[in-house]
Design brief:
The chain is of the alpha/beta class. Helix content is 37%, strand content 15%. The strands form three sheets. The chain has a seven-stranded parallel beta sheet with strand order 9-6-8-11-12-13-14. Strands 2-1-3-4-5-15 form a six-stranded mixed beta sheet. A two-stranded antiparallel sheet has the order 7-10. The longest helix has 20 residues. It comes from Arachis hypogaea.
Length: 417
């Protein structure tokens, strides 16, 4: 009996000695994110930032330059196909055009912040990020000059269509002078019709007696910056979504009457966000404040259904309702337009022209049939890509990364979850 007890004690002592001398391995999933790179006391902690994909190169170039004096911040750029395997090694992810679904997010064991270099976060599964304790953020466009540059691009596309930019190049190639005849905004009496999805199922109808009507489809900083920048062209701004809006409108109508104004517009500019806030931001906040949790859940599914409907909102019915020869400008997202409907109405001549900074699939196929139309102008998603806006956003990203590393509150961004 004593011999058996001695053997048990001896085995325990051996096992304890083995445990004490065995090398210790870190389990990444359970290690606090900001301590994973410090294997020994006193070693410098490293915060790793991942930029997804090679597109929009100035984003990572300018951010790297801004952070170059901080050796404890490492900025990497990886091909899109390498992101799913590499993402467990990073604390911050700048998505750009990457789609981060729940599967990829579940692998991001160290991730603390997913961020867009701009505004659009429709490619991020925010619910999955929230489930894994990851913040999702964007940079508000009014703070960086992004909305102003997008508004200017809308004017560029409008003028390019009115002045027949592609046909002008043909005239140069054919050594022609004084043709073709073009149109202009300057000197016309122009009113602006702004569709505001964020005003509790209503939109504002403006002065429809003018000879030229621009319909700004959307709400927010870009639409308002566009309205202000159209003033030098003799534009009469009648509506705004800001305070005292009732004093600035001639008529308020229901959302369902949108097509009535689509039929009257000479130019339609799409500034919508392709996300749930486009349709239901106002109503959802109202429910949060005034209704119980049951109704909130009910309306969540209702809003999700309406969001699905917002994709392809510029469809065959929409374009068919437009005035013959009217122009369509899109500086928002390609998914808001129904490709087949746009092609159909360009071929028939009903759609007078398309100016778009965004495409259905990006990068867009340069051999696509839509680019063969003389009245189509497409730019490579550069509306917000300016020296000023990108330098400002690089500073916003860099400052947030430094705050995250120091454990300070994150400022200068809009956290959406």
């Amino acid at each position: 009996m004593q011999s058996s007890t001695w053997r048990v004690r001896s085995c325990i002592r051996c096992e304890l000695a083995s445990l004490l001398t065995r090398p210790r391995h870190r389990h990444r999933h359970h290690t606090p994110p900001m301590d994973t790179n410090a294997s020994a006391a006193g070693e410098q902690r490293i915060t790793r930032v991942l930029f997804c994909g090679p597109h929009f190169p100035a984003s990572h170039e300018y951010t790297t330059q801004y952070l170059q004096s901080h050796s404890f911040i490492k900025v990497d750029v990886l091909p899109l196909e390498h992101v799913p395997q590499a993402i467990p090694n990073y604390h911050v992810c700048i998505v750009k055009s990457m789609k981060l679904d729940s599967h990829i997010i579940s692998r991001a064991a160290r991730m603390q912040l997913i961020m867009q270099y701009g505004v659009g976060i429709e490619g991020v599964d925010v619910e999955a990020a929230t489930k894994h304790g990851i913040k999702v953020a964007r940079i508000q466009s009014h703070a960086t000059g992004n909305s102003a540059s997008c508004a200017e691009m809308a004017i560029y596309l409008m003028l390019g269509l009115l002045r027949k930019q592609n046909e002008l190049q043909i005239s140069i190639q054919q050594r022609k002078l004084g043709e073709p005849i073009t149109e202009t905004l300057l000197g016309k009496t122009v009113s602006i019709l702004i569709l505001l999805f964020k005003t509790n199922k209503s939109l504002y109808a403006l002065d429809l007696l003018s000879s030229f009507l621009i319909f700004i489809l959307g709400f927010g900083n870009i639409g308002m910056d566009l309205a202000h920048r159209l003033r030098p062209f003799g534009v009469k701004v009648i509506a705004t979504k800001r305070s005292n809006v009732d004093d600035l409108v001639d008529e308020r109508v229901n959302h369902e009457d949108m097509y009535e104004f689509v039929r009257k517009a000479d130019i339609i500019v799409c500034c919508l966000h392709l996300n749930s806030e486009t349709v239901c931001g106002f109503i959802q906040s109202f429910i949060v404040h005034y209704f119980c949790c049951f109704l909130l859940v009910f309306f969540h599914f209702l809003f999700h259904y309406r969001y699905k409907k917002s994709a392809g909102i510029i469809n065959n019915d929409f374009i068919s309702s437009m005035k013959k020869g009217a122009l369509l400008v899109n500086i928002a997202r390609g998914g808001l337009m129904d490709y087949e409907a746009v092609i159909k109405h360009l071929e028939s001549g009903h759609l007078g022209g398309l100016g778009t900074d965004v495409a259905w699939n990006e990068p867009f196929n340069p051999d696509d049939q839509i680019l063969k139309f003389k009245n189509v102008i497409m730019t490579p998603h550069v509306a917000g890509v300016t020296e000023h806006s990108y330098r400002t956003m690089a500073k916003a990203v860099g400052d947030v990364v430094l705050q995250l590393h120091a454990g300070q509150p994150l400022t200068g961004i809009e956290i959406v979850n």
